[in-house]
Amino acid sequence: MKLAMIGFGQAGGKIVDRFLDYDDRTGSGIVRAAIAVNSAKADLIGLDNIPQENRVLIGQARVKGHGVGADNELGAEVAEEDIDEVQNAIDAIPTHEVDAFLVVAGMGGGTGSGGAPVLAKHLKRIYTIPVYGLGVLPGTDEGGIYTLNAARSFQTFVREVDNLMVFDNDSWRQTGESVEGGYDQINEEIVRRFGILFGAGEVGDGQEVAESVVDSSEIINTLSGGGVSTVGFASEEVDLNSGGGLLSRFTGDGGGSGDDLDAANTTNRITSLVRKAALGRLTLPCEIEGTERALLVLSGPPEYLNRKGIERGRKWLEEETGSMEVRGGDFPREEPEVSAAILLSGVTNVPRIKRLQQVAIEAQDNIDDIQQESEENLEELVEDDEDELEPLF
Ligand code: GDP
């Protein structure tokens, strides 16, 4: 599937930048165009792969290239004011070759949090192709204002896109990591999961054609109907034997390595990978029961993929989610691993979002109280007790 990716704000820009790097490394060909939009000049300069002409600085009149702080209302305002600048960059990309837009942003900050929903709304008005969002939730340790920003952005962003895929930094935080190093790993996880999903069906020259191909329309159909999505992923390393044969590194299941490629083992490996992917760490943790639609993509060397395994995995997902719309297919790749990526679309039982909203409301009340208190304190400081002094004017 070919995407026009627009990274809004620092996190959004860095993630899209990383998608370009992933595309380069894997030849997946999912990024047809990449644009970064920011109100902070330094963040745009810090990107590695997005072409200079596709880096759009907005809000110069208001914030002079210094960013909007964590003020997402200002982020939304400058995005609205300078939407033509963003549109100019989009005009230069061949949108007729694009299957969908993907607007990427961290929802806890200012520029992306406020600007991404504004851009999504604009794109939906102009184009007929789907507009998807990839929104990143802040860590719970980032504090009240980030949580409040994220809760408000989430509500707005979901409404403006055809589907909002969510990644929760909080579930992926590594203790003892520097913030930057931590984000590096997290961003790699993001591009790997979404890269495999969107890469399915993007068969390049000379690549194997999948036995049961996942094509763009299946991804689009899974995402259509709107709402919120999460992605599960699990992989297992296998050896790619340079002599042409394939040997698994895992020989613990009874047989020698040669046995690993018999149909029963291949099927079992796939079914257990599907379970691990669905029941393991999701990009947004949630209850998978009640998911409206799902897409299962099995990728790896063709010898390790079989229709029976995918069918079984699909059936199991239908039972676990209760959904009647579970699609599945394979994505042959000469990589030394077999992986299952599962897109769960239209999830509704998400305690993490409910908690986020609760904390956001508390933060909002606190901010209101503090503001009122500080106004009162200032008044008490400035005014003399008996009101004997007169201001100049
Ligand atoms: P903006 O530039 O004003 O849109 O704000 P940022 O993008 O810098 O930050 C918004 C939120 O995104 C932060 O609160 C973090 O939770 C998150 N964030 C910042 N940088 C990264 C990153 O590189 N990767 C990920 N996954 N999240 C990030």
From TrEMBL:
Keywords: Cell cycle, Cell division, Cell shape, Coiled coil, Cytoplasm, GTP-binding, Nucleotide-binding
GO cellular component terms, A-Z: cell division site; cytoplasm; microtubule
Family annotation (CDD domains): CetZ_tubulin-like
Pfam families tied to this protein: CetZ_C, Tubulin
Location of the Tubulin/FtsZ GTPase domain: 2-195
GO molecular function: GTP binding; GTPase activity
Cell compartments where the protein resides: Cytoplasm
Gene3D superfamilies with a match to the protein in the record: Tubulin/FtsZ, C-terminal domain, Tubulin/FtsZ, GTPase domain
Residues reported to bind GTP: Q10, A11, G12, G13, K14, G110, T111, G112, E142, N169, N187
Coiled coil: 353-380
SUPFAM superfamilies assigned to the protein according to its UniProt record, in alphabetical order: Tubulin nucleotide-binding domain-like (SSF52490)
InterPro entries the record matches: CetZ (IPR032907), CetZ_C (IPR048737), FtsZ/CetZ (IPR045061), Tubulin/FtsZ-like_C (IPR037103), Tubulin/FtsZ_GTPase_sf (IPR036525), Tubulin_CS (IPR017975), Tubulin_FtsZ_GTPase (IPR003008)
GO biological process: cell division; microtubule-based process; regulation of cell shape
Domain of life per record: Archaea
HAMAP family reported in the protein's UniProt record: CetZ
Function per UniProt: Involved in cell shape control.
Protein family (similarity comment): Belongs to the CetZ family.
Name of the protein this chain belongs to: Tubulin-like protein CetZ
Organism: Haloterrigena alkaliphila
